[in-house]
Design brief:
Residues 458-535 form the DUF7939 domain. This is Oxygen tolerance. Keywords: Signal. It holds the Pfam family BatD. By secondary structure, the protein is an alpha+beta fold. It folds into four domains: 23-124, Immunoglobulin-like (Sandwich), CATH 2.60.40; 133-229 and 237-253, Sandwich (Immunoglobulin-like); 269-387, Immunoglobulin-like (Sandwich); 460-554, no CATH class. It contains eight helices and 32 strands. The protein has helices at residues 3-13, 119-124, 413-443, 460-469, 473-487, 491-498, 500-513, 524-554, and strands at residues 20-21, 23-26, 30-32, 37-43, 61-75, 78-91, 95-99, 103-104, 107-108, 112-117, 133-139, 150-158, 167-168, 176-180, 185-191, 194-207, 211-215, 219-225, 239-245, 249-253, 268-269, 271-279, 286-287, 291-301, 321-325, 329-335, 338-351, 355-359, 362-368, 373-379, 382-387, 402-403. Strands 11, 12, 14, 15 and 16 form a five-stranded antiparallel β-sheet that branches. Strands 22, 24, 25, 26 and 27 form a five-stranded antiparallel β-sheet that branches. It has a four-stranded antiparallel β-sheet with strand order 2-4-6-5, with no helix packed on it. α4 (460-469) runs antiparallel to α5 and α6 (491-498) crosses α7 (500-513). The longest helix is centred in the C-terminal third of the chain and has 31 residues, at 413-443. The chain is flat and about 130 Å long.
Length: 558
């Protein structure tokens, strides 16, 4: 062993000297004599390191090229600079070789062993050429129960660059339900010193019958990025189609255990939780006829929402208590173990009689797939106390499901006072509404006394009235624009800005014409707004005439 290697081993053994890490990987660990390989050195050092010392490589390799890249990677939510060296090596001879540890300042890499085959060895060993793309598959349970979740994980490894147009065939299994668990996860992994990109895809599988279940292989297609022709410097980079299949798997599906209750819904899961929510608080005294909303929630790991049973049907109607069920709410979540199914059943409970109502216990049996045994999720029984509007509870113990309760005296004068104040406020509001209506009627001109001059020749009001009566929006808009140009210098825009009621009617008309309203247009509101504009103009004209008469009286002309 040379003095240089001894010094290198001392550097590796002293943790104080090798504070920064230098990660080494190669694109292959087995190659044929005469082929080159790429050695990648990467350091997440906070400062840019000097070029590593490549002298230890010269004994067994010829360094044909070196490239240095300065990158920025995001680690643990922080941006961190990364320095990467890509070194092209040509082995000097065949056999088992070792890429020695390399040092860059205070960072050192680990050695990597490779095998270089001679031409005769490569001719006899067909596995000498490593597959650049391959697939691995696994399931989390080899002997699941029927309708229990099985998570299938596919990992696509590639040590070469791939185009983005890769595809994976769909998974269909006869006798099983299949659901993909989210989007593929991308990460890297070093296998035998070779850096591989990994695309992980997961599926949830629910076998629908017991016995042997075959999971077919899936086809992965991708275009591998080919290197440029070394004889042509500016030659384009092309792609080569690669197709690989995942291994097919078989699992043995077990039937429902005999110890499971025969009249219960089969629920094989990793965990089942049963909860309930009330609105309002059931611990308070409630009045007869007042609705009480009860929400029952069941959550199961490993089951889809469609597999969860309905809980509202377990609440049989009690004597004097009615139940009004709502539509169930089905939800699902995805975690590292697969699907989490959630079902919420809500129902309104309305007591028709006063008394104490005993809601029965809810029991939900399920099979724990982790411990392989029967378990039961329960909700304790609950007592509701219902009082009548006069503050009394029922004393009839013969009511089924109702316990006799003690009479309680409730002071009802606050309710009577609130009702009186509400009646006084309502009366005052009606009086004010009547007065306002009288004032508006006093300001309006009687409809029968209006003279709109509809018989005048070329008067657009005639066309507008006809269009409004026949509910024709396009004709009404045309006639309205013609009339507005005679009334205001800015036409319809200026007139609608001056009169708010006309602006609102115009908005309804435009909504109908331009497809923003689903209801049929009625011209009555537009014609009423036009009449109100005409009335306002007449009042303004009468005011100007009165003012002119006053001025003539004060300043008579001689």
């Amino acid at each position: 062993m040379t003095l240089g290697r001894l010094l290198l081993l001392l550097l590796l053994c002293l943790p104080g000297l090798a504070q920064a890490s230098l990660e080494a990987s190669v694109d292959r660990t087995r190659l044929v004599e005469g082929d080159t390989l790429e050695l990648t050195l990467e350091s997440p050092a906070s400062s840019r390191l000097n070029r590593p010392d490549l002298t230890p490589l010269e004994q067994d390799f010829e360094v044909q090229g070196t490239r240095q890249l300065s990158l920025v990677s995001r680690l643990e939510g922080r941006n961190q600079p990364v320095t990467r060296w890509i070194i092209t090596l040509l082995p000097r001879h065949s056999g088992l070789l070792e890429i020695p540890a390399l040092v860059a300042e205070d960072a050192a890499s680990a050695p990597i062993a490779i095998e270089v085959l001679s031409s005769s060895q490569a001719a006899q060993d067909r596995s000498a050429v490593l597959a650049p793309v391959f697939i691995d598959s696994e399931v989390d349970e080899r002997h699941p129960y029927v309708q229990a979740q099985v998570v299938l994980t596919l990992r696509i490894y590639h040590s070469v660059s791939l185009y983005d147009d890769n595809s994976l065939s769909g998974l269909e299994i006869d006798g099983a339900r299949v659901q993909r668990l989210g989007e593929p996860q991308q990460y890297t992994r070093i296998i035998n010193g070779i850096r591989h990109g990994v695309s992980e895809v997961r599926y949830a599988i629910w076998p629908q019958r017991s016995g042997l279940l075959d999971i077919p292989s899936q086809l992965f297609s991708a275009n591998v990025l080919e290197d440029r022709d070394p004889d042509q410097r500016f030659s384009p980079r092309t792609g080569r189609l690669v197709q690989v299949r995942s291994p097919s798997l078989s699992i043995e599906v077990r039937p429902i255990p005999p110890s499971y209750p025969a009249n219960a819904v089969w629920l094989p899961a990793r965990e089942v939780q049963l909860r309930q929510n009330w609105q309002p608080d059931p611990g308070l005294d409630l009045l007869t006829g007042e609705p009480l909303t009860r929400s029952l929630l069941v959550q199961a790991r490993g089951l889809s929402p469609a597999q969860l049973p309905e809980l509202a049907s377990r609440l049989d109607d009690l004597a004097g208590m009615r139940q009004y069920a709502d539509q169930p709410l089905l939800e699902q979540q995805i975690d590292e173990y697969g699907i989490i199914g959630i079902r919420t059943d809500s129902a309104a409970l309305v007591a028709q009689q006063a008394g104490q109502f005993q809601l029965p216990e809810i029991r939900l049996p399920w099979w724990n797939t982790l411990t392989d045994q029967l378990e039961t999720a329960t909700l304790e029984p609950l007592t509701l106390s219902i009082i009548s509007e006069d503050g009394q509870v029922s004393e009839d113990p013969a009511l089924a499901g109702i316990q006799p309760a003690h009479t309680s005296n409730v002071r009802l004068w606050p309710w009577q006072l609130a009702t009186l104040l509400l009646g006084v406020a309502l009366g005052a509001s009606l009086l004010q509404l009547w007065r306002t209506r009288r004032q508006l009627q006093a300001l309006e001109l009687p409809e029968e006394e209006e003279h709109l001059e509809l018989d005048t020749q070329n008067n657009p009001l005639t066309d507008l009235q006809a269009a409004c009566r026949s509910n024709q929006p396009a004709d009404a808009r045309k006639a309205l624009e013609a009339w507005a140009r005679r009334q205001h210098s800015d036409g319809l825009i200026g007139l609608s800005q001056q009169h708010a009621e006309l602006g609102e009617a115009l908005d309804d008309l435009n909504a109908c014409l331009f497809g923003q309203s689903d209801t049929a247009w009625r011209g009555k509101s537009l014609w009423r707004a036009v009449r109100m504009v005409i009335q306002a103009q007449k009042r303004e004209e009468m005011a100007r005439q009165q003012q002119s008469q006053v001025l003539d009286t004060l300043y008579p002309q001689e």
